[in-house]
Amino acid sequence: MKLPNEIEGYLASKNFSENTRSNYYYDLISMYHFLEDKVVSEESLELYKHQLSKLSASAQRRKISSANQYLLYLYQNQKIDHFYKIDQIAQKEKKQAHSYRPMIKEFPEFYGPMTCPGQFLALLILEFGLNFAEIQKLKWENFNWKFKYLTVEKSGIKRVLPIREKFAMRVKAISNADELFSKSRQFLYTELKKFTHYSSKEIREQYILHQVKAGKTIYELSALLGLSTTTTLEKYYR
């Protein structure tokens, strides 16, 4: 039998965020199109697995995991009459030099008494992974100090990010944040540079590294950052 297209039903049965749902849909629709003119079997699934071998190790694992979850759903819902499972691709041992392993930093100097706009910017990037474009769209009302969360909207999608007490106790007394948020990108860049020699990109990468260390999956981290795909994050999961 051919592989049924029950992707929408499968995704509807899961409590996925919009970003995670989008990532699963992309993986599953790719598999469906590959198998569309083939009979679903151990052999055709092995062919699908083989064509994934050109991808990064993390992408291979993700796509095979997505495929296996979908195949289980089809079997449990009697859409296919046999339970198929694709084995993960055995990875060749790579030389350490090829691994992307930046060091995690703690930045204790960021958490001293608030002294300048650049320090506030550094904390926004380190605590929430925001870029300058997202910071410029913030409003002070986006910070809910009672329930400790920050709402960020990007391309019509709202993200709700937890606020740590470590951050709240240093910045919630600020009274003119909206004035800073309204400034130009160049102004924000200059103010950050006055406070630290680390760039916004370097600080944002530290946010990513800390989330990976905390056990966030690539899909969860993608959702936290408001990314439409996981491509730019794959190097952190190899």
TrEMBL record:
One annotated GO biological process: DNA recombination
Domain called Core-binding (CB): residue spans: 1-75
Keyword terms, alphabetized: DNA recombination, DNA-binding
GO molecular function terms attached to this record: DNA binding
DNA-binding in keyword set: yes
InterPro entries noted in UniProt: CB, DNA_brk_join_enz, Integrase-like_cat_sf, Integrase_catalytic, Integrase_recombinase_N
Every Tyr recombinase domain range: 91-238
Protein's UniProt name: Site-specific tyrosine recombinase XerD
Organism of origin: Lactococcus taiwanensis
Lineage summary: Bacteria, Bacillati, Bacillota, Bacilli, Lactobacillales
